[in-house]
Amino acid sequence: MTNVLDKGFIELLEVFGDDLTVVNAARVSFAKQSDEMNSKDEKLIEYLASHHHITPFFHPQLRFRIKMPIYVAREWFRHGIGFARNEVSRRYVDTVPECYNPTDIRERDQHVKQGSKCTNIEENELVSQRIRDIQNELIEKYKNLLELNVAPELARGILPQSMYTEFIETGSLSAYARLCNLRLDPHAQYEIRQYAQALSDLIEPKFPVSWASLTK
Amino acid sequence: MTNVLDKGFIELLEVFGDDLTVVNAARVSFAKQSDEMNSKDEKLIEYLASHHHITPFFHPQLRFRIKMPIYVAREWFRHGIGFARNEVSRRYVDTVPECYNPTDIRERDQHVKQGSKCTNIEENELVSQRIRDIQNELIEKYKNLLELNVAPELARGILPQSMYTEFIETGSLSAYARLCNLRLDPHAQYEIRQYAQALSDLIEPKFPVSWASLTK
Amino acid sequence: MTNVLDKGFIELLEVFGDDLTVVNAARVSFAKQSDEMNSKDEKLIEYLASHHHITPFFHPQLRFRIKMPIYVAREWFRHGIGFARNEVSRRYVDTVPECYNPTDIRERDQHVKQGSKCTNIEENELVSQRIRDIQNELIEKYKNLLELNVAPELARGILPQSMYTEFIETGSLSAYARLCNLRLDPHAQYEIRQYAQALSDLIEPKFPVSWASLTK
Amino acid sequence: MTNVLDKGFIELLEVFGDDLTVVNAARVSFAKQSDEMNSKDEKLIEYLASHHHITPFFHPQLRFRIKMPIYVAREWFRHGIGFARNEVSRRYVDTVPECYNPTDIRERDQHVKQGSKCTNIEENELVSQRIRDIQNELIEKYKNLLELNVAPELARGILPQSMYTEFIETGSLSAYARLCNLRLDPHAQYEIRQYAQALSDLIEPKFPVSWASLTK
Question: What is the mean pLDDT of residues A203-211?
């Protein structure tokens, strides 16, 4: 389990296949098969990845348990093809929520397509504390709504988008490579890059040749 | 454009195909074609739908512009297969947000799988007003964070999940039928049912035979 | 490995997950988890399947090696969503092909939507032998084209559609259930039903509760 | 309708959207909209395509009627994501089939991954005629099987893989760009390249900016 941000994590639950799965899916075209990875197999994987022959990379699968802030999850879930997901529902769950409280409050970048600068605002500590106060206050107000017998599916409406959510996700190696390539880009938001990096670090040892080829 | 909830809407932008598209996609199996719907074609559509031969219903497409609260959108987006979506991003947009403020505050149902009762809580008006106050306060605090030069991608973290978002969505007739069948179910949350109903009412006149067959 | 038809087979290569995977994907909605299947879990699976809540069934995956006649594979491959496939290519492979030679030559059914009767034609043996002769002759002519230096990608054009092909396929439990439900139907062609049955028999012991619920 | 090979064709049936559809799907992120394409919109499309931001290209759709040889269709259908297809079925149709008869019989290339040389074999005309004879003979034998009351679903087993099939296909602009990029590659088989080129020529005038950006 890799901790991400202040209270999030990514946990690799199960892996289906390895580099050899990719090789043998590709070699079936030639009615051949490898029993063990060799240097020819490595070259094959590199060739497949660099020529966008991605179907062999659809066969391996990975399953994760992930906890991330809702506004990060909303970007993460835009990657739909090749993924299965089931998520905690605040229609049914009314435990005390947790929120992401950043300690580095990044400045706005004047260039709108760039989400933020890498420098913090002047009143960094003060604002970080203020955000925590707002979050705590909202959690108190949420509890209060529940005490007044408000249905959780409505009460959740006041909870902030920095609230953590949790989900189980199964995806193909190909789908994860595409996600990481887009979300490790320096234009991606800092928070989602931390998750993409943690994911990449968990996948790499399981598919060393494929992952190097797909993400370079 | 159909208004939904207090500030949301569904607008049908464009339609691709009609009932005849379904018929001719199916009739290609028999190397046949219809130029105009007749009663045989209607029976064919009913047969296809009732026997789960859904591929002909993948060909027609519809495009919508939709404005809905984030916590509703998060359920809506669980429907991924057969949909394309692009959504407003609060990394780039920092206009004053709008929130869903329910006037009927439904009671919790003791049965957890049922999200709410159809009756309102006792202090209905008071709580509705309190929710509005919380939302307005959060919007003020959000503006204040922006004034302190906080990057919008971080400032959005305090905005509530009842905030409205907007997106453009293209989906196949088959995908919309599946969405509506699940989200018009009485177990679905009241708010998402309003959107599913508005959607269904917009689709029905464009595909009268197919829609009746797919959603019965 | 299960033999199917005269020279085909289905081999289960690898399984990803079990009934508990389905249960825990579903229970994440309630922030719960099971460590071992119990009777509540079984009821949950039945509830999910009967209410078309299929997302938890997307997480488990299975991988097969399959050898089937081309005209059967062409129907099989119509099932695309949730599957990854890599197939032998006769652009690259020019070994002697094998063909499906039916020994029961079913009669035409007068009802066109029914592909065949379950009775054989009168001259059953004679025609079965004739089909084998045609297949063998074509294989000889194919070899002859190769001797004349014709590119395999063109020479294959004379090979019959009853020729066997081989492929590796990864699919989700949900995708296989949908395939089997459609292809075990008595309206499906006899040959594809044999493959669907063999598949179903291989999946059932790995996911006893889910498979029973999804295919009833 | 564009003729392809000796008896095939691609016919563009209907188009859903234009370059502006792509622009407005992308601009929704910034809560903006264009009413008419301008030079900024063109640059946006180029930016999206070159940075692999492909979701806006999922919204436009095209529908085609296509007639191609079975062995070409089998490669074509490997492109599954983003496509809907319905095809003529020889379980139900027993009209006289047509076959692709190449007049240029390309030589085998010694490099196995290259399907053929661009030069013809020595006995080009003779072999082209021989292939036609084999095809005609098979069609006669097929008719004969039907006369003996063999079910069409079995009789089709002797028909050659160069037989033409016909289908209706709906795909997203993004899916067609991916198909064309792979199938216009000089390593792709000559026959499929003809279809990819015809397709590209039909799409280009409908989405001039997007198509240029996606296929360069």
Answer: 98
Of D56, D60, D67, D61, the C-alpha closest to D84 is D61
CB contact (8 A) between residue A59 and residue C56: no
Mark residue A145 as left, alpha or beta (left: phi above 0; alpha: psi -120 to 50; beta: remaining). Answer: alpha
- For the domain that residue B38 is a member of, what is the CATH number? 3.30.1360.170
Nearest to A153 among B83, B91, B115 (CB): B115
Nearest CA in chain C to B112: C30
In a domain, D19, yes or no: yes
Query: In terms of residue numbers, what domain contains B8?
Result: 2-100+162-214
ipTM: 0.94
- Tens-of-pLDDT digits for all 216 residues of chain C? 999 999 999 999 999 999 999 999 999 988 888 899 999 999 999 999 999 899 999 999 999 999 999 999 999 999 998 999 999 999 999 999 999 999 999 999 988 777 898 899 999 999 999 999 999 999 999 999 999 999 999 999 999 999 999 999 999 999 999 999 999 999 999 999 999 999 999 999 999 999 999 998
User: Which residue does chain C place closest to D162, by CA atoms?
Assistant: C157
Number of domains in chain C: 1
The catalytic position among B106, B108, B183, B193 is B183
> Which residues of C are designated catalytic?
183
Q: Shortest Cα distance from C182 to chain B (angstroms)?
A: 8
Q: Is C23 on the interface with A (CB under 8 A)?
A: no
Q: Mean pLDDT, to the nearest integer, of B147-161?
A: 97
Mean pLDDT value across chain B:
95
Convert the pLDDT of each residue in D143-179 to its tens digit.
999 999 999 999 999 999 999 999 999 999 999 999 9
Chain C CB contacts of B29 under 8 Å are none
C10 to chain A, closest Cα gap in Å:
15
Confidence of residue D32 (pLDDT cuts 50, 70, 90): confident
Give DSSP secondary structure letters for chain D: -EEETTTEEEEEEEEE--HHHHHHHHHGGGT---SS--HHHHHHHHHHHHTT--GGGGS-EEEEEEEEEHHHHHHHTT--TTEEEEE--TTT--SPP-B---SS-BBPPSSTTS---SSBPTTHHHHHHHHHHHHHHHHHHHHHHHHTTB-HHHHGGGSBTTBEEEEEEEEEHHHHHHHHHHHTSTTS-HHHHHHHHHHHHHHTTTSHHHHHHH--
**Mutation site, A52, A83, A112, A180, interface D, largest D CB count within 10 A:** A52
Residue B117 belongs to some domain of the structure: no
The C-alpha of D149 sits at a distance from chain A's nearest C-alpha, in angstroms, of 37
Kindly state whether residue B86 falls inside one of the protein's structural domains: yes
Does B127 map to a domain?
A: no
Kindly tell me the number of DSSP H helices and DSSP E strands found in chain A.
8, 5
pTM above 0.90, yes or no: yes
The verdict on a CB contact (< 8 Å) between B30 and C55 is no
Q: Rounded to whole angstroms, what are the CA distances from B24 to A49, B17, D86?
A: 39, 11, 9
